[in-house]
Amino acid sequence: MNGNFDLILERSLSFLRGMYSCAILELKGYKTINSYECLNICGNKLLTTLELIKNDIPTPKTNIAFTEESSIEAIEKEIQYPAILKPIIGSWGRLIAKLDDHNSASSNLECRESMGNIFQKIYYIQQYVKRKHLEKDAPTDIRVFVIEDECVAAMGRFNPEKDFRSNIAIGGTAKPIEITEKVKKLSLAASKSVKGEIVGVDLMENDGEMQVIEVNGTPQFQGIQTATGKNIAGEIVNYIETKYK
Amino acid sequence: MLVGIILNRITWEIKQLISELEKRHIRYILLNNQKIYFKLSKKRILI
């Protein structure tokens, strides 16, 4: 098959396969959404954090360490317990752990050190964003669906009772929310910082400040379309038709 | 207009996108990365 494509839309659930397909297709001269560069940044939490910092976009306090010992030191000297340990590559909240104390930190880190793949041995340690100061019905986090210069939909996500994570894929629930000027400005800035065209931006309120947690380069939209009633697939196709036809 | 869609399985979202493309009479080709391979060379890359 050798199509003369006007545009390639990357919608693979396998991050690496999707990203490498775009790298190859870009070399052939095709326009891909998102670009290989964007997918590479968004698919890697460390690279995303670096871009957010570079562009002065507020994000939770984060440390990177390469060994179990230095990770413990980073948590106990800088981040404090509870801390969040995330794989730098991964989605749907998988393998994200809340480290409540020294014991849970060392056992989680030991597991990754002995059983994890190479990326799981890059320890991305983030401040745990406490929810106490927020109102009872405040969402755990916010997902904004961005298409170029527009925030087309936003939902508040709520973690299930027995989990601190709010990902829809693992049982989180969602409600539509209003897109405030602050949320809009941050979401568009975050999207630009990762060279995004169609992205999902995750935000959280931390000590009264809205911060960007991560940017998704292949954002799923079933959850946000269902929660908000917005036709996201229609918005995507409208956009590509208007811009690339 | 011809749109290529890289995917690894037909999900609800892919069906939604296909439906919207068809509504607008936009041609598309599904590039299932479980089934295709890329032939790499300096001159051209074939899917």
Overview in brief:
By secondary structure, chain A is an alpha+beta fold. Helices cover about 35% and strands about 25% of the residues of chain A.
List the helices and strands and how they pair.
The complex is a heterodimer of chains A (245) and B (47).
Chain A: E1 7-10, H1 15-27, E2 32-33, H2 36-42, H3 45-54, E3 62-65, H4 68-79, E4 83-86, E5 97-99, H5 102-115, E6 123-127, E7 141-147, E8 150-158, E9 173-176, H6 181-193, E10 198-206, E11 209-216, H7 222-228, H8 232-244
Parallel strand pairs in A: 1-2
Antiparallel strand pairs in A: 3-6, 4-5, 4-6, 7-8, 7-10, 8-9, 10-11
Chain B: E1 2-7, H1 12-23, E2 27-32
Parallel strand pairs in B: 1-2
Structure, explained:
Chain A is of the alpha+beta class and about 240 residues long. Chain A is built from eight helices and eleven strands. The model of chain A has no long low-confidence stretch (mean pLDDT about 90). By secondary structure, chain B is of the alpha+beta class. Chain B contains one helix and two strands. The longest helix of chain B is centred in the middle third of the chain and has 12 residues. Strand 1 of chain A pairs parallel with strand 1 of chain B, so a sheet runs across the interface.
Keywords:
heterodimer, A: 245 residues, alpha+beta, five-stranded antiparallel sheet, 8 helices, B: 47 residues, flat
**Helix count from the secondary structure assignment of chain A:** 8
Q: Which descriptor suits the 3D outline of chain B?
A: flat
Give the chain pair forming the largest contact, with residue counts: A-B, 38 and 31 residues
Q: Which secondary-structure class do the elements of chain A indicate?
A: alpha+beta
State the oligomer.
Answer: heterodimer
**Main pleated-sheet profile of chain A:** 5 strands, antiparallel
Uncertain parts of chain B: none
Order of strands in the sheet with most strands of chain B: 1-2
Mean pLDDT of chain A: 92
SSE sequence of chain B, one letter per element? EHE
Q: β content of chain B, as a range?
A: 25-35%
Overall mean confidence score, pLDDT of chain B: 90
